[in-house]
Each structure stands twice: as structure tokens, then as C-alpha cells.
Design brief:
By secondary structure, the chain is mainly α. Among the domains are: 126 residues, no CATH class; 93 residues, no CATH class. Helices cover 71% and strands 0% of the residues. It is built from 24 helices and no strands. The longest helix is centred in the middle third of the chain and has 24 residues.
């Protein structure tokens, strides 16, 4: 079982207190965390993959050597699989970690006081040997083998295979623990600021990725793909809130690929419905409609929370594009499916509770210009949100301000939008909130955008980041 990076961090803290040398730290991480020798040396130094690549580049610069074409993903692959780099890169990695073939399972010797390998033939030969199975007993030429040496070789090979099977199969208990952590992430996500949440999401995703990269039974691999899709979707959503739109789009693509890999139809639909949020807020609307429609079709009209979510997402995107008939049809379908499905917990980011349905209906009715209906669902939603939550209540207030604009209460609309923006906690006052305030300004009649209320709202948006 491979442990998370936090286990290596704990070992480093203990090592610092007891003044262990780097080799002992790497040995302990390897045996405790179940990682490769190459990875254990990186973790012993507390480096991320990107930091290790940067350190290697600095080393090459200091030695006036040409740096290899290496990135974090390539190093990750070498750490996780039997694949090995070329002989010259192996030599540089040994220099970087100041160890030898025994230290990394590769080649070269750069321990303090050690002799560097300078023979190209020797380097190549050792590198080639390192790519094969690493047994305790070196192979003996067939003509020289005794019965005992052959038995030892056979037994060594069997033990190596058994270790592989034992280390790369996720136990039922480990899956249950991961499931518990996924539920914890889903609940934390509802109230935790996106920048803070990203770190936790990425750490947990790395652990899932490492497990997925090993040999797993088919049912376990599919479950890990489901977890990957869930966490990648939350990462994409957090990036969207922070205004990192290109990164968010890519992560939504990763989430869709993982969901498709899992074969779980409801998950495939859910990820697409969630991904429709990015183009709904930032365009193009046709993409939002298409993703929501894909999700609805995958759901096949089953009475599920995902089906209600997909129909509601399609409704508000159609309304924003101006398709009143299509929006009303989707609203009716969303309400019908919601009445017949299990909604899930209100504090679960992966559920579609009643208050979230109202949030989507608010968007649909607001863009349809049906302000009385929009106000009704907004008030229903406000009653369901606790004091401590994310930005959904603020988004509802901003749609309330849009309704005021449509009712020609322009000064009141600007004041409500500005007050809403300033009252949101600093950590939650992210780019998406600013973009929604800008939407209020954009729907003002052009002749009134220079009014005092509109100017003051624009000034609030222009304020520098920080407590207000």
C-alpha cells in the first residue's frame, strides 16, 4: 500500500529531530510508504516533482552540462513504473541525489568521497541492468549454475512477483478509507474557500493517481477512476471560481475522461452537468447547453438528482440565450425529476439539494425576465442556506439585483450588488463573484451606466484585493 506524501513529511520531521542522514530518511520512506527508491530520495528532501526538475536544471547549469529534456510528468513516470531514463539522465539523477546505483537502483556514484562513473560503456551496461527485475541474487550463466543457485533464483523471482501483487492491490479497507475521505472533501468543499480547498484536493488526487498507476483488479481500477472524476471536477470548479478559466476547462476535460473510463453512466452525466457551469458563466452559451443536454440524455429521464441537475442547468443556459420555450420545458422536467428523486445531503457538494435547484431556477427566471417567479425561488433558497456557507447566497442576491434592474430600480440594484460583494468573506470574494457583479452593470441601460450608483459599483469592483 502506497502512503500519501504526508507520511513522508512526518518521517522528515522525525528525522530532523534525531538528525538522520539523507540515506536513512530515504530508506525509511521507502520501507514505510511503499514507494520506489527514486521517489523516496525526492520525498526525503521534501521536493515536489517540479522542484526536483528545477534542482536538476540548476545542477546542470552549475556543472556546465546540458540539461536533459525532463518535466514533472516524465519524472513521475520513472518513479512509478519500471521504465527508466537514458544512461546520461540516470547519471545526472545520481549526481542530483548524491548517491549511487544501490541508492537509486540506477547507476553512477556521487556519495561524498565516492568515485563518479566516467566510462560510457559502464554507464550504459549498468543502466540496462537496472531496467530488469531487481533480485537479490545476480543471474548465473546457465553452464555454471548449481542446483542451489537455480533454486535461489527461482525463489527470488517468485518473491518479487508476490511482492508486486501484494503492494499494488488496494484492499477493501483502503477503498473504504478513500471513500470516507471523498465524502469529507465533498462536505468541506461547500464551505471552504476555493484557494484553500485546491491544496487538499490536489494532495488527495495524487494519492489516487499513484494507486491508479499500479496494477489493480478491474473493479478497483474503475472505483479509482470514479474518485479521480469526482476530485478533478471539484478542482475544475475551484479554478473556475478563482478565474483560472483555461486551467478549469482542462480539468473539466480530465474529469470527463476519468468518468468515461469508469463506465459509470450517472457519473458521466454528473460531470458534464457540472462542466456546463464554466461556459454558462463565461461563454460560449452553446457549449453550456450542449454539455447539459448530453448529461440529460445520458440520464435517460431517470428520476435521479443528476437528471434534475442536468435539466436545471440546461434551463438556465437556454434562458440566458433567450430561448424561452426551451427553458420552460427544461424547468418543468427539472422540477418533475426533482420531485421523484433522492436529493442527497444539503452539505454535500456532490448532491443536488433543494436550495441548489432554486439557485438554478433563479438564474433561469431572471434571464427570462420573470422577476416575480425569480424572487419567489430566491426567497425559498435563502431560507435553506445556513449562516456559514459558500457564495451561493451571494449569487442569488446578485440575481435579485438583476431583477431590480429589469424593474427599473437601478440605484437600488447597484446598491444591493455592491453591498453583496463587500459582505462576502475575503477568501470567498473570488473572480466569479466579480464577474457576476459586472453582469449587473452590463444589463444596465447604456444611458445610465454613467450614473452615480453605477460608477460607485464599478469603483467597488476596482478596489484592490484584501479586507474591506
Amino acid at each position: 500500500m502506497t502512503h500519501s506524501p504526508s507520511c513522508a513529511k512526518r518521517i522528515r520531521h522525525e528525522a530532523d529531530a534525531e538528525q538522520w542522514d539523507i540515506e536513512r530518511i530515504a530508506d525509511t520512506i521507502e520501507s514505510c510508504c511503499g514507494v520506489s527508491r527514486l521517489r523516496s530520495h525526492r520525498l526525503a528532501r521534501g521536493w515536489t516533482l517540479s522542484q526536483a526538475v528545477t534542482e536538476l536544471q540548476h545542477l546542470c547549469d552549475s556543472l556546465r552540462l546540458s540539461a536533459p529534456s525532463l518535466n514533472a510528468e516524465q519524472l513521475r513516470a520513472w518513479e512509478a513504473t519500471p521504465r527508466r531514463p537514458r544512461a546520461r539522465t540516470i547519471d545526472l539523477l545520481c549526481r542530483l541525489y548524491r548517491t549511487d546505483a544501490q541508492g537509486l537502483g540506477l547507476t553512477g556514484n556521487y556519495r561524498p568521497g565516492g568515485q563518479a562513473s566516467t566510462s560510457g560503456a559502464e554507464v550504459t551496461l549498468r543502466a540496462a541492468a537496472a531496467t530488469g527485475p531487481q533480485f537479490r541474487h545476480p543471474p548465473v550463466p546457465a553452464g555454471q549454475r548449481t542446483g542451489d543457485s537455480l533454486d535461489a533464483l527461482v525463489d527470488s523471482a517468485r518473491r518479487a512477483v508476490e511482492r508486486t501483487l501484494a503492494l499494488t492491490t488496494v484492499s477493501v479497507t483502503q477503498l473504504e478509507v478513500l471513500d470516507e475521505r471523498m465524502m469529507g472533501l465533498r462536505r468541506s468543499y461547500v464551505v471552504t474557500p476555493p484557494a484553500e480547498m485546491l491544496t487538499q484536493l490536489l494532495e488527495d488526487l495524487e494519492e489516487i493517481r499513484v494507486l491508479s498507476g499500479d496494477r489493480q483488479p478491474a473493479n478497483v481500477q474503475l472505483r479509482l477512476s470514479e474518485m479521480t472524476a469526482l476530485v478533478a471536477t471539484l478542482i475544475a470548479d475551484a479554478l473556475m471560481k478563482l478565474g483560472r478559466l483555461h486551467q478549469s476547462q482542462r480539468w473539466y476535460g480530465t474529469a470527463r475522461a476519468a468518468a468515461d473510463d469508469s463506465g459509470n453512466t450517472e457519473l458521466r452525466a454528473r460531470v458534464r452537468a457540472q462542466a456546463a457551469m464554466l461556459p454558462y458563466y463565461y461563454g460560449p452559451l452553446d457549449t453550456a447547453i450542449d454539455l447539459a443536454r448530453q448529461a440529460r440524455l445520458l440520464n435517460r429521464n431517470r428520476p435521479t438528482a443528476t437528471g434534475a441537475f442536468a435539466a436545471a442547468a440546461e434551463a438556465r443556459a437556454l434562458a440566458r440565450r433567450g430561448d424561452a420555450e426551451g427553458a420552460h420545458t427544461a424547468i418543468r422536467q427539472a422540477q418533475d425529476l426533482f420531485e421523484r428523486c433522492k436529493h442527497g445531503r444539503a452539505d454535500d457538494a456532490w448532491a443536488f439539494p433543494e436550495r441548489r435547484l432554486y439557485l438554478y431556477l433563479s438564474g433561469a427566471y431572471t434571464y427570462l425576465g420573470e422577476t416575480s417567479r425569480a424572487r419567489a425561488v430566491q426567497q425559498q433558497a435563502f431560507r435553506l442556506y445556513p449562516d456559514r456557507t459558500g457564495i451561493d447566497p451571494a449569487l442569488l442576491h446578485l440575481e435579485e439585483a438583476m431583477c431590480l434592474v429589469r424593474e427599473r430600480s437601478l440605484a437600488e440594484a447597484c446598491q444591493l450588488a455592491g453591498r453583496t460583494y463587500l459582505e462576502v468573506q475575503e477568501a470567498h470574494r473570488t473572480t466569479i463573484l466579480g464577474s457576476r457583479v459586472q453582469d449587473v452593470i452590463d444589463i444596465l441601460p447604456s444611458s445610465l451606466r454613467s450614473s452615480r450608483a453605477a460608477r460607485e459599483l464599478g469603483e467597488i469592483l476596482a478596489l484592490p484585493a484584501g479586507p474591506m
